[in-house]
Design brief:
single chain, alpha+beta, Ubiquitin-like (UB roll), Creatine Kinase, Chain A, domain 2, Four Helix Bundle (Hemerythrin (Met), subunit A), 3 domains, nine-stranded mixed sheet, eight-stranded mixed sheet, 26 helices, 51% helix, binds adenosine-5'-diphosphate, binds magnesium ion
């Protein structure tokens, strides 16, 4: 066998192993720590294996007997690999993953030590979960939350713990996590897309959403980062003057990866490989100290889990390599922030990518059907889509330094625009034979060739079609992918059902052919989608005005954007699909608004503390040095001292000016915070933080950054941008 071999560093949980490198075998070791389909097949008898395969494929209920068999198999597999504990692993609305480890060890009735893990422990647990954000759902009912096994995402061993992917719901069955609505949306999308795909292939059984994320991040020296309370508490720098050199030379982008970062990546890749995360690409990003990692795409549910797991692995391995990994969307101002492009497509169970043009015109009509309907869905729900990616941290990223604008538009490229222009000309009703031949030969027949060079150069489009998938680029680096993907799945599911109903309506006319009906329906859609198509410079003033005229949600605040979940058409969408109940939507909006407020509250406090306790005292210390200097000059030069001390005295004065501005600013910010804190309504509070508190961040920072340029470098208390970004 021709195995790929890579250099890598030793195990994640072996602390003495930092510097030992060894060779590993990708094929043999891939997914070694995953209880995947292969492991299931090996450890179950044939009947049980077939039964669980059916459960996974159809999303049906699992019997207790089968759960017991799987639990036994899982336990002995995990024990054979040295696992001592198990946990239900879930993704609450905190944005991080959650685990509560239980030992496999138990006591028998006769007080003997036994190993205990059966179907009931596999299927359901009740973590004491009252401290997870629930947006009020659990206050009015019981304060209990339950985790329930998701058999569509395989269990894995992380450290010495068997992790069982689960959903997290309240006593009354309401979603308290990101995974529950995701799974609901995937099943709705499957239903709607399968029906439409059957126009083209009657045997279509199932349609999956596929997801490939591109994770951007910064790697910063841990010791330097430790000098920055802002990085530790908020994940970003709240102050710091731009470094003389930033990213203007573009010399980091795709450059040779620094050795220390590379050894971090190698270990990260090895651990990912064991966990079955198919990481493939690594490279330097645009900003100094910024990198990207991307896997091979997978079914969306698994891909979401893999991203959430990866973020945790990244933190652990970075720590081991004396790095701090920054997943915040905008850790440094003035240079690029970090996003997480979500590449999304649809795949049938026989492996056909529905957003990939095929060899025949009919295949391409199928491609156009899914392509155009996705754009219609985005047009119908652009505000909601935007609502799914906004946060206090992404707000700092969107709209500058190469990040997409916070206005949703779709990029499709010149050639596909031409195809749409041509399609728009088809006649109503039955198409003439000549028209059909022309279309098939010259328009849709040529799609595969023209798609080859479909690229979006400026990369600032928030939602771009890139050859055989859509790329949602507005998603932030920290965001749980389930959030935007749940919305995307839902809006496309809704649109495909509408489309299907309309085509079926046309087909009630017995003379109407299927492809004519589809052509007609697509033509009608094209008229509308022009509103959301945009290929130009997202940063231009004209686009911002233009977008407003087109009725696209203009760049309002994050609290406003969050409320899109409660717009009547969003409620109709989610209730109709049973992805979210109205109460679940209200609770999510509540949580998002609260998270926004907390983020700004913490930033405001941290900024005030650093400004008053670190910056002002340092500035005063430097002033004292200057004062001593001036006094000394006076002693030496007597009356003439002023000509020698003029500059020093000027600096003294400037420092006093900045100190005054900082101190005033912090005082005013605190009183605005106090006022905002008195507001009861979450939206009002978040908006007050946005409008009245946040502006102080910039003004306070401005004066701190000015002081950084004035004060003696040797006493400056915080690591500077040039040190954070350029120490390797
Ligand atoms: P970029 O030019 O944006 O870096 P790449 O071609 O490297 O894009 O692909 C980026 C991501 O898109 C990868 O994670 C890849 O797995 C994913 N991707 C490719 N095809 C699909 C698909 N059909 N569905 C979902 N993701 C996909
Ligand atoms: Mg990309």
């Amino acid at each position: 066998m021709n195995s790929l071999r890579f250099e890598a560093l030793n195990g994640l949980f072996n602390n003495n192993s930092k510097k030992t490198s060894f060779v590993y075998d990708t094929e043999a070791e891939f997914a070694q720590n995953v209880f995947n389909d292969l492991a299931l097949q090996k450890s179950l008898n044939q009947d049980a294996y077939q039964e669980i395969s059916k459960v996974i494929f159809k999303g049906t209920k699992i019997s207790r007997a089968l759960a017991d068999q799987i639990a036994a198999a899982m336990r002995s597999w995990a024990r054979s690999k040295g696992a001592t504990h198990y946990t239900h692993w879930f993704q609450p609305l905190t944005g991080a993953t959650a685990e509560k480890h239980q030992s496999f060890f138990d006591l028998s009735d006769a007080s003997q030590a036994i190993e205990q893990f059966d179907g009931s422990q596999l299927v359901q647990q009740e973590p004491d979960a009252s401290s997870f954000p629930s947006g009020g759902i659990r206050n009015t009912f019981e304060a209990r939350g339950y985790t329930a096994w998701d058999p569509t995402s395989p269990a894995f061993i992380y450290g010495k713990t068997l992790c069982i992917p689960t959903i997290f719901v309240s006593y009354t069955g309401e979603a308290l996590d990101y995974k529950t609505p995701l799974i609901r949306s995937l099943s709705q999308l499957d239903k709607a897309a399968t029906e439409v795909a059957r126009y083209f292939d009657k045997n279509t059984q199932k349609v999956y959403a596929t997801l490939g994320w591109e994770q951007e991040y910064f790697l910063i020296d841990k010791t330097l980062a430790a000098s920055r309370p802002d990085l530790i508490l908020t994940g970003r720098t709240l102050m710091g003057h731009e470094s003389a050199k930033g990213q203007q030379l573009n010399d980091h982008y795709f450059g040779s990866i620094p050795a220390r970062a590379l050894s971090f990546m190698q270990e990260l890749e090895y651990q990912s490989l064991l966990l079955g995360i198919p990481v493939k690409t690594r490279h330097n990003e645009v900003a100094p100290a910024q990198f990207e990692l991307a896997p091979i795409f997978e079914e969306a549910n698994l891909s979401v889990d893999h991203n959430a797991l990866l973020l945790d692995v990244m933190n652990k391995i970075a720590d081991k390599h004396d790095f701090m990994v920054l997943l915040h969307e905008k850790p440094f101002s003035g240079i690029n922030g970090s996003g997480k492009h979500n590449n999304w497509s649809l795949k049938t169970s026989s492996g056909i990518n529905l957003l990939s043009p095929g060899k025949t015109p009919m295949n391409n009509l199928q491609f156009l059907t899914f392509f155009i309907n996705t754009i219609v869905a985005v047009l119908n729900h652009e505000s909601l889509l935007r609502g799914s990616i906004v946060s206090a941290s992404n707000e700092l990223r969107l709209g500058s330094d190469e990040a997409p604008m916070p206005i949703i538009s779709v990029f499709i490229g010149e050639q596909l625009t031409d195809v749409l222009n041509n399609l728009e000309q088809v006649s109503e009703g039955k198409l003439s034979p000549k028209e059909k031949t022309d279309l098939k030969l010259n328009v849709i027949g040529k799609i595969p060739e023209i798609l080859l060079d479909n690229t979006d150069q400026n990369r600032t489009s928030p939602f771009a079609f890139t050859g055989n998938k859509f790329e949602f680029r507005a998603v932030g680096s920290k965001t749980n992918c389930a959030k935007p993907i749940t919305v995307l799945n839902s809006i496309v599911a809704e649109q495909l059902s509408i489309f299907k109903a309309k085509v079926d309506g046309r087909l009630e006319n017995p003379k109407m052919k299927k492809d004519d009906a589809i052509f007609n329906e697509l033509r009608d859609s094209i008229k509308h989608i022009r509103t959301i198509l945009f290929e130009g410079d997202g940063y231009s003033e004209t686009w911002i005005k233009n977008a407003k005229k087109r009725g696209l949600n203009p760049a309002t605040s994050t609290p406003d954007a969050i409320k899109a979940y409660l717009a009547p058409k969003s409620i109709t969408l989610f209730k109709g699909l049973k992805v979210f109940s109205e109460r679940e939507l209200e609770s999510r909006v509540e949580v998002d608004l609260q998270q926004y407020t907390y983020a700004l509250q913490i930033e405001g406090r941290a900024l005030g503390d650093i400004a008053r306790n670190h910056i002002i005292p340092t500035a005063i210390k430097y002033q004292n040095t200057l004062i001593d200097n001036v006094k000394g000059l006076k002693e030496i030069y007597g009356k003439d001292f002023e000509s020698h001390a003029k500059e020093q005295m000027l600096i003294l004065e400037r420092i006093s000016g900045h100190i005054a501005q900082i101190n005033l600013g912090v005082g005013d910010m605190i009183s605005e915070r106090k006022k905002a804190n008195l507001l009861d309504d979450s939206y009002e509070k978040a908006s007050a933080y946005h409008k009245l508190v946040k502006p102080y961040f910039e003004s306070i920072r401005y004066h701190c950054d000015k002081l950084e340029l004035l004060v003696d470098n040797s006493i400056w208390p915080l690591a500077k941008y040039r040190e954070l970004l350029f120490s390797r």
